[in-house]
Amino acid sequence: MSTLHGRGRVAGLPAWDRCAVMGVVNVTPDSFSDGGRWFDTTAAVKHGLGLVTEGADLIDVGGESTRPGATRVDEEEELKRVIPVVRGLASEGVTVSVDTMRASVAERSLGAGAALVNDVSGGLADPAMIPVVAAAGAPFVVMHWRGFLQGGNVKGSYRDVVSEVVDELHARVEAVLAGGIAPDRIVIDPGLGFSKEAEHDLELLAHLDRLRDIGHPLLVAASRKRFLGRVLAGPEGAPPPARERDAATAAVSALAAHQGAWAVRVHEVRATADAVRVARAIEQARGARAGAHPAADAPHNPGEGAR
Ligand code: PMM
Q: Is a pLDDT exceeding 50 seen at residue 41?
């Protein structure tokens, strides 16, 4: 399994010596995972600052639920929800990411102090997005996305999910580069749960090395998602509610960090902050052993001393 080496850093953001923790602040009344508890500017800023205290390295602020079937909020409403929270957190020195598919929201957020644009559509939902981010010189998250979902998960059929997601992300990265966003400012994300069934999400997590081979820092956003509910439920049982998937989320955080993810995006920060620190300590122990005993990590030769 590949580890830390080549985790990469993103120009325009702080450099972290381990997998970074992106804490989620959803300023929405209908987010599936936190039930809209933070639908208020003051409460949202306070929650974001609390996540930083718990160990978040950056905070992702979103004003529109992206869950399948969710109705879109209009631009005015999204701006009203997001901008004061971005400004409030940035003014406290927090590294802020804005989770939006709208160029206008991205532009105003960058003006209010956001450092990163996280677009679940990878620039597909709004043709003005890539030019706005390029002009601002901001880093950009390109998530794997197959369009808005109405009704069933119709765009979630794959012959080979890993190869198709890799190919489609490659194509999006090419488009983003052609649009003028610098290569060292591009982050990629497999888009767990977006046009994907539980088995697709698991297969992608089993092959993060293939995604890392695309050559850009990798963001993994598994937090509280449906596939974790499926895993925890077992074949017959009912999935636990989103809020009861945080321990499972932290397990994915540790595994993703170990596989060289640049960052993990989570709602509950404390356990994931611990997980990425443990992953780093283990990576360092591996590095120290490899340094002290250069042969220690070399491929084992069964012909020698294999008794
Ligand atoms: N998932 C959600 C929202 N934003 N951003 C990125 N980059 N990747 C994701 O998988 C992703 C995202 C899902 O909504 P939630 O915030 O309610 O969990």
A: yes
